[in-house]
Amino acid sequence: MTRQPTQQRTTSTDDWVADLLLMLLELAWWLLRGVVRLAWRFPVPVGVALVGWWAYSHDHLLSVGIVAVVVVVAVVTWRLAWPGSFLCWVSRPAWRRRKRRTIRHSWPGLCDRVGLALSVVEHRSGGRSSWTPGLSRLRWTSREHLVLSARVRMVAGQTVDDLAAAAENLAAACGAWSCRVRKTSPNTAVITWLFGDPLAHAVSPMPVPDVVDAAAVPVGLREDGQPWLLRLAATHVLIVGVTGAGKGSVVWSLLGGLAGGIRDGLVQVWAVDGKAGMELEPGRALFTRFATTVEDGVQLLEDAAVLMTDRAARMAGTARQHEPSTSEPLLVVLVDEVALLTAYTPDRKLRDRAEKAMAALATQGRAPGVVLVAALQDPRKEVLGLRNLFPTKVAMRLDEKSQVDMVLGEGARDSGALCHQIPDTTPGVAYVKVDGIREPVRVRASYYDDAAIEQLARTYAPTVRPVFSVVDDQADEEGAA
């Protein structure tokens, strides 16, 4: 009878001691983690404090003072003599940390100011509570070009479209050049802030690849500083922009990315320049066929349609996708200012023939490896009624904001494609929209001057004679007759 209370008191004491030890361990872990985080986030102040404490405790204040003066002089000299290096290693990393920390801590307030906060409730004490989209994985995806990306989860009652509609306000509130929202699921998105503009200056020509990949042709730079790789295989490309917008930059950059394949006979380019050759004549050596009049251009399109039909008949039952080779090269039909063939030609029969041939190429040419690349200034439907048949659209500077959705598709302007706001001082800047991808991408094509075009044509002129040519076949038939 007397042993049970003793056992209970012993058990209670052991539990109390165990709880105390556990609390002490948790406190020690919390302190250690706090010290490590403090040293990681603020290494310089922590280091200075430790050195000062050590100097004070060992009576070395004078020595430490001399070292500090030397370090200050060295840093000032570095800043004045090599500002670029100082910016890369000191100023910019500190600015990145500060900007990331500021956005993370001020996110609820940002959402409130741009209209993304929901269910604001006023309390009797004067405070309030609100529900804002969750912010996670806030990180710098490109340190060189200051691209900050984060994953955002929307709260109930909101959609990603609400976030996209507030993108411009978020950019202004964060001091960013632009803000992009990319949908990843029905209630999550990736939001990207761009601080600075890598496209503000002309882009030098990209290196010509030794091995051509038609699925990723280097054309220029994207706004995040990454290479702009334009897909050319199994697609058609429409380039639209006013005079002086830089359509020629896209065309020559595309030819530069294909130059290795043109030289080796894996790619053929049939070009139509209705302006008597004024635009494309400097690169004449790169083209297997070249038409400088409307009549010749229409005939070239019809010949390309014949080649496409013949190749599709040979591929039927054996292959579903074309693989470029010297015997069956990728055929790129390049039409500069397509409106000269479809709208501005007084001969109605020629217009009908051109539209019929282009419709055949646009609807049937992707699988047989016949790619249509068309450039024009006026995007109206009566000028080019086939614009919806181009899966890849490049919209450069446009006159009116209504033309943005006309070229890139409905909702493109709301998704950030501000083609009507591209300044005339940045030719080559454009927004690219690919079917199946909701968000347009801002890019800038490389700039080729006359000397670079002539060098490209001399270096990469085709060295392999075309195996198939409609003109040669027709000449043989006439000779036999």
Helix/strand order: HHHHEEEEHHEEEEEHEEHEHHEEHEEHH
Beta-strand proportion = 15-25%
The largest beta-sheet arranges its strands as 8-7-16-15-14-9-13-12-10-11
Sum up the overall morphology in one term: elongated
| Individual helix count | 13
Distance between the termini: 128 Å
Helix content: 40-55%
Give the tally of β-strands: 16
Task: Give the rounded overall mean pLDDT.
Answer: 84
Unreliable stretches: 469-481
Largest sheet: 10 strands, mixed
By secondary-structure content and strand pairing, the structural class works out as alpha/beta
* Integer-rounded radius of gyration: 32 Å
Task: Describe this entry's structure for a reader.
With 481 residues, the chain is α/β, with parallel strands linked by helices. 44% of the residues lie in helices and 19% in strands. It is built from 13 helices and 16 strands. A 10-stranded mixed beta sheet has the order 8-7-16-15-14-9-13-12-10-11, with helices on one face. A 4-stranded antiparallel beta sheet has the order 3-4-6-5. The chain has a two-stranded antiparallel ribbon with strand order 1-2. Strand 1 (118-122) and strand 2 form a beta hairpin. The longest helix has 39 residues, at 3-41. The termini are far apart. 33% of the residues are buried.
